[in-house]
Amino acid sequence: MLRRRMAAVVLAALTAVLLTMSGIAAGAEEQALVRVAHFAPGLLKGDVYVVYVNGRLQLKGVPFKTVSDYLKVKPGRFKVEVREAGKPVSSAPVVAATVKLQAGKAYTVAVFGQLTSVKAALLTDDMSRPGKSKSKLRLIQAIPGEQAVDLVTGGDVLISGARFPSASDYQEVPAGSVEVEVRKAGTSEVLAKAREVKLPSGSIASLVAVGGIGEKLELLDIRDAFASAAPAGGVATGAGGTSSSPSPGGRRFALFLLIGGGAAAATGFIVQQRRLS
């Protein structure tokens, strides 16, 4: 009888631990990540905008040239609305877009502008890790107008012919520091001066050509993810907030630790029962 009771208690403890861990893993896989980027110089200067998702306030302020942290949401279809700060939810939004988000993927809802013409585009953020000693980057062309631009490093064109509004595919580049600038496509005319960008091994970045309509042309360095770090949810504004997430090895260690703890607890219970008997 005691042996059967021992087996039942240990089995129950291990089952509870496994169910808890599988539930955590499933919950993480079922989520999508979405953030909002404000690249529209055509909107009124100094205005701070708030973002609603399906009618609920999610981000309190996203100023020009700012990218919010990632929000963790359930996959599905969402209506994203951007309003001026202080405006009621019943007021007409500056821009609205309906987007469909898939589980396990990350997205940027980018707001682009040209004078009074404002539009939003859904960009897919590729969070797959680059190769060894590599990093990944893409160019987002947010300068209003018809002219195309090139992203140039060391005199070599890294990304060519980017038009407004668009985002290039990600490209793998050697990790380290690199000096990049934005030029008018096919020419040596510099639109945004060179800046040094640090790309640690494993990092993922979006370089954004932004400005125009009275704003200085410049190149922003927005980090989608740092070395081996998955994007984390949040509501604070910043350059694509990220934080570390457990590695597969770390999750396995945590699983073994919990199993060991459950087994130890079960063993202690059984010893106690034996003493009482």
Outline the structure in words.
- The chain is an alpha+beta fold and 277 residues long.
- It folds into 2 domains: 48 residues, no CATH class; 215 residues, no CATH class.
- Strands 1, 4, 5, 8 and 9 form a 5-stranded mixed β-sheet that branches. Strands 10, 13, 14, 17 and 18 form a 5-stranded mixed β-sheet that branches. A 4-stranded antiparallel β-sheet has the order 3-2-6-7, with no helix packed on it.
- The longest helix is centred in the N-terminal third of the chain and has 29 residues.
- The protein is globular, with a radius of gyration of 24 Å.
DSSP summary, beta strand count: 19
Structural class: alpha+beta
What global shape is seen? globular
The average pLDDT is 75
Could you give a quick summary of the protein structure above?
The chain is α+β, with helices and mostly antiparallel strands.
Q: What's the arrangement of secondary structure elements?
A:
Layout: H1 2-30, E1 32-39, E2 49-53, E3 56-62, E4 66-68, E5 71-73, E6 76-84, E7 95-101, E8 106-114, E9 117-125, E10 134-141, E11 149-153, E12 156-162, E13 166-167, E14 171-174, E15 176-184, E16 190-199, E17 204-212, E18 215-225, E19 237-238, H2 248-276
Parallel strand pairs: 1-8, 10-17
Antiparallel strand pairs: 1-4, 1-5, 2-3, 2-6, 6-7, 8-9, 10-13, 10-14, 11-12, 11-15, 15-16, 17-18
Helix pairs in contact: 1-2
What key attributes describe this structure?
277 residues, alpha+beta, five-stranded mixed β-sheet, globular
